[in-house]
Amino acid sequence: MLQRDLSVYHEPISDLFPLPARRRDWDRYRLSDEQVRFFNQNGYLAGIRILDDGQVERLREELIDLMNPDHPGRRLYYEFHSNESKDPAKVLFHALGAWRIEPGFHDVLWHPAFTVPASQLLGGAVRFWHDQIFCKPARHGGVVSWHQDYSYWTRTTPLAHLTCWIGLDDSTRENGCVHYVPGSHLWPDLPITGLTGDMESVQQVLTSELKEKFSPVAIEMKRGECSFHHARMMHGSYANTTDSPRRATVINVFRDGVMSNSDEPLLEGVPVIPKGEKMGGQFFPLLFDPSRIAL
Fold first, then answer.
1. Which of 48, 92, 93, 204 could be stapled to 135 by a disulfide with Cβ–Cβ 3.0 to 4.6 Å?
2. Which CATH number covers residue 51?
3. How many angstroms separate the CA atoms of 73 and 65, rounded?
């Protein structure tokens, strides 16, 4: 049976993440002025409760099927890596495109607990870029090396991007939680040095000044909590050595108006958006526009 492509639906298709009916109901999802200031100063904001226990369980259930390489929706992924690390002893499952396959991963994109803060931090309407799944199995989960997201995204411009990392398990130092380097969102764009394998490979391209500023902080969170970070934020995560998996989903967005900076496909299998044209269409839907909220 052919798997339906959920990218044709630009609104929630289930009741997992209800949309508010009145402006005051939307407003309860807003970040405080202090939280926005913290993000602007440090490049990240962590510990925001975004999913309740039922929503976490629903996404975990869908994730079991999504990790199956024989899933009928496999063709809909932009990328699928059963182990991106290339080391069978250090496994990092990484995939892009779950929103096209399972309804929970589709609908979380429109979740007001995500879209409202994202709009505040981006300063405008929120348009979808792509999603990711990162899973580190128990005892031998691999690393995600230090990197800046925008190093991989220069095929879109200008830089008006935001990442939301959502934990489906408690994330701790022991199981490979995300680490951020506060203030690194103000650093210049750095060359790509690899996403897996050598955790410290980025040190090869840092200047002496940036090495002195390289002071990571561990972002430990409960399942259902999220962190937001700037596209230039230096971040990574260490190995999982615990007896339980560390699973997460990531939503990447940009402010409406960002353009293609390439005449090549922006994601595998997606039609070309010519360089200089505004991002949009089936695969880059508008998720939230604060000017359209009903009173």
1. 93
2. 2.60.120.620
3. 9
Flag whether 90 is in a domain.
yes
- What is d(CA 83, CA 96) in angstroms, rounded to the nearest whole number? 13
Q: Residue 31 pLDDT more than 70?
A: yes
List the structure tokens of 265: 């496909």
Residue 110 is assigned to a structural domain of this protein: yes
* Residue among 2, 3, 1, 165 at smallest CA distance from 100: 3
Q: Which residue type, as a one-letter code, is found at position 144?
A: V
Q: Which helix (H) or strand (E) holds 119?
A: helix 112-122
Query: What are the tokens at 82?
Result: 């059963």
Q: Are strands 93-96 and 79-81 parallel, antiparallel or unpaired?
A: antiparallel
Give the residue numbers spanning the domain of 100: 27-137+150-170+221-233+241-264
Q: Residue 79's closest CA among 131, 129, 154?
A: 131
Half-sphere exposure of 239 toward its Cβ, with a 13 Å CA cutoff? 15
**Of the listed ranges 49-63, 135-149, 255-269, the one predicted with least confidence:** 135-149
Do 98 and 66 contact (CB within 8 A), yes or no? yes
Q: Which amino acid is at 195?
A: L
Cα–Cα distance for residue pair 87/69, rounded to 1 Å: 18
- What integer pLDDT is reported at residue 295 of this predicted model? 47
Q: Confirm whether 43 is domain-assigned.
A: yes
pTM value > 0.70 = yes
Amino acid 44 reads Y
The CA distance from 144 to 84, in Å, is 10
Q: Rounded CA gap, 189 and 92, in Å?
A: 25
State which amino acid sits at residue 87. D
Contact 178, 165 (CB under 8 A): yes
Query: Tokens at residue 15, please?
Result: 């009741």
Measure CA 34 to chain center: 23
